[in-house]
């Protein structure tokens, strides 16, 4: 009969004579497995620590996003725009625009020059027009000699209206003339507004409806009155009258529209609130990870990164920087704009009234406290300073992860991976050793069983012989 084996491959018949069973072998192997179990526990700990640092990295990235928002011009001095009649005109302003209220009357909207051809007797715009020859357009654009540019196109009998429009539009970037097809008519329009001249010639012009029967409408300039001053522009979107301010003209009217720009501090306040909230979230996670719990308790539980020097250094750096009383190049500091600690646990708070007052008193100073930059002639940032810039630099020492530059977290993560790899090699060695020991134990106790079985057999024979002799 085949022997019955246990799940670990040891025969269940082991120990029939010696009394040493498969369970005894397992107990012996368990004692030999202390090193393997220790390595497995180390892997679990390292994996937990790596995961904990990954969570810290996520919070740091979220915090950096809020810090970066305070380095954007769009966060500061944004404008709230109002108009008494949006059907006449509207107003917008960028961060360089000043607050102001303006009276505006639109006398004339700007239009573009246009040539509308006569309707052709074809089925549709995809039907060949059956005309061949040349078509020459003269645009309002000029060459280096100041002469009007001309553009010539060869028309074949198989061309459709759509084909002809496509040929013209390939040159639009140079000619500023765009072609379209409406109701089997070719329409040529100047891409720019104002009183600009465009014309059509060529032996195919008449056949295409662009001859004497075509309708030509010369463009006009926009004319409007701004606070009583008459202004003329070749566009209905006027952005060069007041710095940073754009007026969009919508309708000519005898009525006046009142337009205004006022500083909108909500973006700045919202950005600072987000910074404070994300800081508290980050520091809460760090505190949990570094917690030593209550060492007096027998079942004390510590944070996953308790005693981690790098995390403690990060915690200390953040605490020092977030309420730094001195910001280089600025007359303000976090406290003066309402950022301060509100309890002994290090929770950060924001006094919105204080921040709003600082913005009202000197919005440029508030912006400069958070971020200042110097740019080269080609627009590249050459230097940065300020509260947000300093925080950003420190955070990036932890977060940067490129082939040329590994930050603190990337370096720690690689260290964890390397340690786990080494421990797995140790476990493989332990497994090989334990397998060899199991074989050794099984062989040794099997031999013992065999010896005891033979001894018992000999004893039985001896006993039977003794009994025979006695008889």
Automatic annotation (TrEMBL):
List the InterPro entries hit by this protein, alphabetically: Flagellin_hook_IN_motif, FliD, FliD_C, FliD_N
Protein name per the record: Flagellar hook-associated protein 2
Where the protein is mainly located, per its record? Answer: secreted
Query: What's this chain's function?
Result: Required for morphogenesis and for the elongation of the flagellar filament by facilitating polymerization of the flagellin monomers at the tip of growing filament. Forms a capping structure, which prevents flagellin subunits (transported through the central channel of the flagellum) from leaking out without polymerization at the distal end.
> Where's the Flagellar hook-associated protein 2 N-terminal domain?
22-112
Concerning its family, UniProt says:
Belongs to the FliD family.
Q: How does it assemble?
A: Homopentamer.
Q: Which organism is it from?
A: Liquorilactobacillus capillatus DSM 19910
